[in-house]
Amino acid sequence: MGTFLHRLDPRTKLLLTALFTTLVFLMDTLPVVAVQAVFFTALCLAGGIPLKKVFPHCKMLLALIALVIVLHLFFGRGLSAGLMIGCRIIALVTLMPMLTMTTDPQLLAFGITQLGVPYRAAHVITAALNMIPSFEEEARVIMDARRLRGMQAVRFRAYPAIVLPLMFKAMRQAQMAALAMDSRAFGAYRTRTFIRKTKFSALDWRAFAAGIVWSGIVVPANYFFGKAVLCPT
Q1: Count of other CB atoms within 10 angstroms of residue 44
Q2: What percent of the chain has pLDDT over 70?
């Protein structure tokens, strides 16, 4: 059955992801934003997602956060503002794996359509998510092949040699997907049926309650810290 994240209904995960994403952007004090980043990372680990998959490009992420902090210092926004943006980036990066890595694509498409989104849009979303692991694996194979030939795959000049094969692969996959969809008359009907469906369980209602409690904690805390900064004693 997997962890509690795997057992949640996809609609629950979609709604909670939307709620948490909104909170990430609404909270504007460093302590609260930092706590959110730590909390979401802990949720990923508790849900059985390895840290390596949560942050697959750790060096690039750290470089981006460092660049954001430097730019905020350069333009006079201050270290606190730069750190807050960095924590927001970490929080957003950790939210997506909790949805995509713990949900079957078919169930995710079912959950999206049950929330009122047309199934054509749901198919586009899930198809794009399905292609990401394939492209990551293909990029890894290309870089390994270049290393075996004594080439440096990480230099900037080597990126075109990596990107071009990925572009050709994307075009081939798009053509094959379009042919498969046309042969099955995809889009001929306004609605569609699903082989696999899910139902809300007690775990889903507890997850909703936890999301409401979390919102009830961070929103007043954000107000408290914001007031403390504006009106120091």
Answers
A1: 23
A2: 86
